[in-house]
Amino acid sequence: MRAHVKKTIYSLTGKLIITIGTLMVVGSTIFWYFLIHFQEKELLRNSVKYGHSFVDFVEKSTRYGMLTFQQLLIQQTVEAIGSAEGIVKIRMFDGRGKIAYSSVKEEKGTMLGKNESVCMLCHSNSRKAVEMPSWSIKKDKDGYRILNLLQPIYNEPACYTSSCHVHSIGTAILGFTEADISLSLLDKAVKKQELAITAYVLGFICLLSVVLCTILWNLVSTPLSVLTHGMERVAAGELDHTVKIDTKDEMGELATAFNAMTFDLKKAKDELVEWGNTLEKKVEEKTEEIRKAQAKLIHSEKLASLGRMAAGVAHEINSPLTGIVTFGHLLLKKFPEGSQEREDVEVIIEQANRCSNIIKGLLGFARASSAEKSSINVNDIVNSSLNMVRHKADFFNIKIVLNFDESLSSIKADASQIQQVFLNMIINAADAMEGKGTFTVTTRKVDENGVPFVEVEFNDSGPGINEKDIPKLFEPFFTTKPVGKGTGLGLAVSHGIIQDHGGRIRVRSTIGKGTSFFVRLPFYEG
Amino acid sequence: MNKGNILVVDDEDIVLLSCKRALTPEGYNVKTVRRGADGITLLGNEAFDIVMTDLKMPDMDGIEVLRRVKEGWPAIEVIIITGYQTVETAVKAIKLGAFDYIEKPFTPEQILTVVNNAVARRANQ
Description:
The structure holds two protein chains of two kinds. Helices cover 55% and strands 17% of the residues of chain A. By secondary structure, chain A is of the alpha+beta class. Chain B has five helices and five strands. At the A-B interface, α7 and α8 of A face α1 and α5 of B.
């Protein structure tokens, strides 16, 4: 994937290229300048050297003519040499400035103007300078340089002893030879060289720039751009994104570190999310637990306050009942046996006794907490409870099945209260089955949240309990039995007793199949 | 014929009346008071063979009455009348010297039996 790369001069590549390019241009220019300058100086020096040789050559060529005073020959020689390529002009003049010979025929015999540079030598400089060969540069009409060479013609014995007697012995310098040599070829060559070097340098800079650009682009800009893009995507939450840079340099290391960081981030985020989910679930579970506990507490509190109320009512009613029973009996004695009045009073006493029984039940419900706990065996209590009722007519046609866990050890409980609960369960079962069916009592060890319990299951094959009645089963005065048969206190009392022992009672009922009551009591080892 | 003097202490008039009507025809002289303190005062003025007291009363309860009677008149037999058939309270009462206890509601026969037994024991001592 190729990411978008910044192409402005503000990018890293741009800055580097501009810096390196500038350095190279400056460096090349300095190099170029010194190279050209040195070369030109060298070429000029050589030109001057050859120029002087050339002037020597002119003087030597005309020497014979001079000594033999053949002026025409000298003039012709000068003209011939002056016509050579690159020679602009050759002239020879005497010490007074008269041009004796010149490659330009028309000049011959004329006087040099006082302002001519040649004259300036004698007229302004020291004598010594005049005696030495000199040179200068001037420009022609095309702008090319012309090397002007001036060389004195020294007096020598051959000159003043010559037959023409033109020169006397006292004169040191007889005249000057001046040559103008065109440097146009040299100038053209230098210009060509300048252009060539400039072109080479420019070409080199361009090539280097391209190479640098490519290298920087591939090594820095592209990976950086990929990294930036990756960071943007990760920042936007795309934690699965990885940066693909396979180089083994620092960029590669950076990419590897970045990918590792993204991976860690993703892991941390996943963990957080998972924790969040688990936490939510745990909170839900706990909330449900609390809700259940609260419901249970409300239920218990309801039963407890009902118990307190029942105790108060029972106590208040006992006294008037005492009156009814006592006076009923007193009245009974006043009527003869078999009289209608006696029968009526007997009904009053009977109903008062019924009231008394209800109150006894109520009080039992209220005082469930006053228990004397001792070590008891649940199986024994079940047996003794059954023995109390199995000879009753209600149980004649009921098959009793016992599934005892014989390994059950003792529990700490109030034997009479537990027996009251079991009896209640047994009588309820018999009432439900209406005298026929199977009644099964099972004892077992169970584990509830790591706490061991003893469970006694009372199962009857009766008609079952309506689902809507189940929540009301343990409320006082709730009964499904016919009026006069049940007080609706048995299960309420049982519930209070079992709860006081740290246990609980559960019901499972299926209409048409039967009902199971599970009594759980905490199990104490040893 | 006076079989014995009986003092009944109960905050309920109907209980007092019931005791009176059950025991008077049987030859007992029955006096009733509604407060424990009144009973103790009456004991200082008159001679009684038996004191019957309710357990739960305002001001002074049955256990306190029993204690005071046993302190001042150890020979008098005390019968506890209780609306609560609590074994603990009954055991406590017996330990404190009560002769017996009777549960409400009681029949004339039941109360007569308990009183007769108490009188018989007092006669034996």
